[in-house]
Amino acid sequence: MTQLREAYITGTGVFLPGEPVPVERMEDHLGRIAGRDSLLGRRALRWNGVETRHYALAADGRATHSNAGMCAQAVRAALEAAALEPADLSFLAAATTQGDYLVPGHAANVHGELGGGPLEIASFQSVCGSSLMAAKAAWLSVRAGEHDVAVAGASEFSSRWFQPAFYEGTALVDAKGRLRAEADYLRFTLSDGAGAVVMEPAPRPQGLSLKVEFIDLVSLADRFDPCMWAGASVEGRTDPLATWAFAGPAAAHAAGAVALLQDFELLKRVIRAWVGVYLQKVDQGRIVPGQVDHLLCHYSARSLREEIVSLLEKTAGMIPEQKWFSNLASVGNIGSASIWVMLDAFLKSGRLKPSEKVLCVVPESGRAFVGFMMLEAVG
């Protein structure tokens, strides 16, 4: 039986489009539904705690980058950080929530933008957790000895779904021009950008590398209806047959079934489920909080962090908040790319020391999913 190798993150890369857009200009940049300010948007921005974010749309609605193009830029940056070229890459796993095309998959389009010659690819489409799905594929390919240089990349171009014309004239806007909360909140929650990590079977000669100790992925989709979705109306999202019950794309759009939507009441229950899975990992000894030196937990809003902390504070699983690292305030929630953008910023912060352990946690509200990745710094 072939012995599994170790796998190390030897480079990280990020691409953030355009200049940072401050909170007071976000609705100017995206545009106003029916020409009115969004009341929910103001509250969402207070809950989020985001100060600036990036968009791959200019203020006039023109796209400045493609989703795949941003991912390719992040992959190039990660390879450069690992002292590698695109031609050295032999496995590319790419994640996103909504790619540039319905078909083909995201990884094919990222490879097309990246170049570098023939390679193996894998596409992962979900919400935030697709980043760790891609990471596990890259990690296992290196561990199994099938590839010596693998990349997990993730990118999002959410803002192109948030322009006023995408909602106006649909069932999501009422007679007074007010957008349904299921759609409006997300307009002020999601950002654009990309991140990537390189994995190799040995640490790099100089500087710190990150040994990947484990990546655990847990779906609770058998317990919950879709919580964040696109492709069904608010009323029809629980019935898979209803997602195809429209006379055509125009009818689906008019019903509000194409927009990205979220059920906030269900989200509150999903948060508790995420915490429950984490505490199970602690009870099983898979995660030992006292041995974690740094926690990188993805969350979409400051209010969600507060909710998670309140649930953990009285448990043995609580990791002190001084060990938490986040860059949500400066880049916003970039969906699947968030964890790699956060990891890159953390490594550049200078906080990490050899032998320290870093726990990355990525919850996903799509249909109740949560992933865990444990890393150890190797000098």
SS-based class: alpha+beta
* CATH fold-level label: Peroxisomal Thiolase, Chain A, domain 1
- The Rg value, from CA coordinates, equals 20 Å
Mean pLDDT: 95
Which strand order does the major sheet show? 5-4-6-7-1-8-13-12-11
Largest sheet: 9 strands, mixed
> How many helices?
11
The CATH superfamily is: Thiolase/Chalcone synthase
Query: Spans with pLDDT under 50 lasting ≥5 residues?
Result: none
The amount of helix comes to 25-40%
- Number of E-state strands: 13
Helix/strand order, N-terminal first: EEHHEHEHEHEHEEEHEHEHHHEE
Q: What's the domain count?
A: 1
Strand proportion? 15-25%
> What is the CATH-assigned architecture?
3-Layer(aba) Sandwich
For the termini, the CA-CA separation is 30 Å
Outline:
globular
Detailed description of the structure:
It contains eleven helices and 13 strands. It has a single domain, classed as 3-Layer(aba) Sandwich (Peroxisomal Thiolase, Chain A, domain 1). The radius of gyration is 20 Å and the shape is globular. It is an alpha+beta fold and 379 residues long. The model has no long low-confidence stretch (mean pLDDT 95). The strands form three sheets. A nine-stranded mixed β-sheet has the order 5-4-6-7-1-8-13-12-11, sandwiched between helices.
